[in-house]
Design goal:
single chain; mainly alpha; 2 domains; 3% strand
Length: 311
């Protein structure tokens, strides 16, 4: 009887491990193993004889591609426009809904509609809006009086000549339209997140500031924005990550065109991996994007911790 006690205690000590073992197996299968396989694949090249180790050549070949530099420029322009427009629009829509206007619940329900639509479907809808001849907006866009001299074809218009060397600015009309479509798709999430943060701000602080003579702009700048800053930072980096990794809307809306004017890094990854079937180079690009994502996540956590310490 005394010999069995240590054996039972040993089984009890290992009980927590056995309880979390299924979770560890699932995490290894869907996260750890694919990550390790991607690292291995990034230093390999497929030949008729099999996989051949090439070291960092896949990364060097990516860097030497002119398409790679253009994709970085397109990604920067898209992320800056997408995050800025979504944050500004989401803040002011949340500000309107926070006033407890009549039928505000109905408006919030309508706000959910873009969020329930898949990226592929949203891209198809926005594409149909500007298709020449029968698109809903084609009559306005192809009017020479509004867009001289021959109207504007969003999906086929040639990008203007760059102002800053090889950096693709100003962007092509298709890239601007892609920013608007992505903003419409992400606006509900940001609006509801900011609205929830806005409703946690004590009304006593706002009322006392108005008694002291603060106008609406001063209340927003000195009260709402500082108190909502942690939530705004989380929303900003969430938008950045989704914009960095999204490919569905690009695929259905522009297909990377015209030419390569809307080819972001995420879409370039799709083209290299599935169109060209160059899995080694695609894995190298995936690791680069993963490093950028990790930097963005680390920045989010760091800014949030600094904000918490400053309180």
């Amino acid at each position: 009887m005394q010999r069995s006690l240590p054996h039972r205690r040993g089984r009890r000590n290992f009980l927590p491990f056995w309880l979390i073992l299924p979770t560890l197996v699932v995490l290894f299968a869907i996260q750890v193993y694919p990550a390790l396989y991607t690292v291995w694949l990034s230093v390999q090249q497929r030949e008729p004889s099999g996989w051949i180790f090439v070291g960092l050549k896949n990364f060097a070949r990516l860097r030497n591609l002119s398409q790679f530099g253009e994709s970085i420029g397109h990604t920067i322009i898209f992320l800056v426009g997408f995050t800025s427009l979504t944050m500004i629009a989401g803040f002011f829509v949340a500000l309107l809904l926070n006033r407890n206007v009549r039928l505000s619940g109905f408006y919030i329900t309508l706000l959910f509609i873009p969020w329930t639509i898949a990226d592929l479907l949203a891209g198809m809808v926005f594409r149909l809006l500007v298709v020449p001849d029968y698109g809903l907006l084609s009559g306005i866009l192809q009017n020479p009086a509004i867009f001289p001299p021959n109207g504007l074809s969003v999906l086929t218009a040639v990008p203007p000549r760059p102002w800053l060397g090889s950096f693709p600015f100003p962007p092509a009309p298709a890239l601007v339209y892609l920013v608007l479509a992505a903003t419409w798709r992400a606006l509900p999430f940001v609006t509801l997140l900011l609205l929830a943060a806005m409703q946690t701000v004590p009304q006593e602080i706002i009322e006392s500031s108005r008694i002291d003579g603060a106008n609406g702009r001063q209340v927003i700048r000195h009260i709402l924005v500082p108190l909502m800053l942690p939530t705004m930072v989380v929303a900003l980096f969430s938008l950045t990550l989704s914009g960095m990794n999204g490919v569905g809307m690009i695929f259905s809306l522009t297909g990377g065109g015209p030419g390569s004017s809307t080819e972001l890094l995420s879409y370039m990854l799709y083209v290299i991996g599935w169109n060209q079937l160059n899995f080694g180079r695609a894995a190298a690009l995936a690791l680069m994007i993963a490093v950028i994502n990790w930097l963005l996540i680390s920045g989010t956590l760091r800014v949030t911790r600094l904000e918490e310490k400053s309180r």
